[in-house]
Amino acid sequence: MNRYLKLVHMEVHRFRYILAGLMGITLIVQFTALIWYLNDEIALNEKAMQKYGFAESNMSFAQTIASTQFWFAIPIFLSISVLCLYAFLIWYRDWFGRNTFVYRLLMLPTARSHIYLAKLTAILLFVFSLISFQLLLLPIEHLIFKLIVPADLIKPSYFMDAVSVNQIFEMLLPSHLDQFVFSYGLGAMALVVVFTAILLERSYRVIGIVYGVLYVLVCMLALSFPIFAGIDNSESYLYPEEVWGIELMIWAVIVTVSLWLSFRLITKKVTV
Known about the structure:
Blueprint: H1 2-52, H2 61-67, H3 69-96, H4 102-106, H5 112-148, H6 159-164, H7 167-172, H8 177-223, H9 225-229, H10 240-269
Helix pairs in contact: 1-3, 1-5, 3-5, 8-10
């Protein structure tokens, strides 16, 4: 366990500057968009007051988030893209980096499965760190909203309204626990499948690319089985709980097979 945690720390340490950069970009872009929009709206209200003697409309935090959601989405999509790319780089940088770091990594006096689990854990930590950072930004942005907008122009709104009106927030922060588990469970499964495909390529090289692509396709077909079988639509004879159980079983099979195959590959087949 101690060696596994050291490997996780090493992976986090190698990505720390990129993670900090993504957080910095998210903060700067969202704060700038928020302040810019609020100043423009206040200026329009001041003109309306001078011309008509009353403000055009009150302002709510939810309305502000909805109006700036394009700019809020840019750093979020950038972070998602970087993490998707890093899911590949976290493996290939060890092979193609300076001094072929993988030589030392695979010779460590620990189970090779720990290397796999450390990389998987690191990616998941990065994902939830960015989500937690976004959750931390929202109350600060709400405070900025209240500091900039005059009190007589503020229309009350619930904090969750700001999450629900922004499509990207609604996707990242599902309001129901089962949706949250399903979304992030699906993401974790996709990560495990990609890792398995990478290890197939690293084990068998050129032909391994074909194996990896075929493995991903097989997993996608298995996951799409409820759709092809027509058991997840409104006309299905199964109850929603039964459909959910089938999908959960397919997810568990894919993850279990992927982990077993990955551990076998990294232990028996992967060479330097």
